[in-house]
Structure prediction request, 169 residues.
Amino acid sequence: MKQYLEIGEIVNVHGLRGEVKVVPWCDDPAFFCTFETLYLGAAHRPVTVTGARLQKQNVLLSLAGVESIEAAEKLRGEVLYMDRDEVELEEGVYFIQDLIGLDVLDADTGKLYGTLTDVLQTGANDVYEVKDAEGKAIYLPAIPDVIVETDIEGGRMQIRPLEGLLDAN
Prediction:
């Protein structure tokens, strides 16, 4: 598991005092505003957040040491990361990045359906895209009736497909 997870991208500057506009890559943009420290770029250079506020579905950030439009402009296109140790997830909640790559197995027979390759956020519930060895995709609703166990450390997810679910795929 990666220690630092991508959380958003700086896409523009905002105003003249060095604020940056960020497109958050998390379920809820308000979650982005809870961090005191974020990590900049592939080197994960720590930056202190001195202010964060929502603007529609984006976040406006003030970062320590970034106090002019010129300094903010240099950050355009940079990816921001969070340290996974700074977040405590509820039971049964996972980072999408940790789910991708899990082997998906039948809870009763042990049959390997494939590898979880994507998480589609549909609103009502997430949908997991699973591709088999030939690259054929099946789609599974991320609901308790289907997902029996998720073992991030073990690299697998056990499912019990609803009757007819895989026939439709």
About this structure: The CA atoms of residues 18 and 72 lie 5 Å apart. The radius of gyration is 19 Å. The longest strand covers residues 4-14.
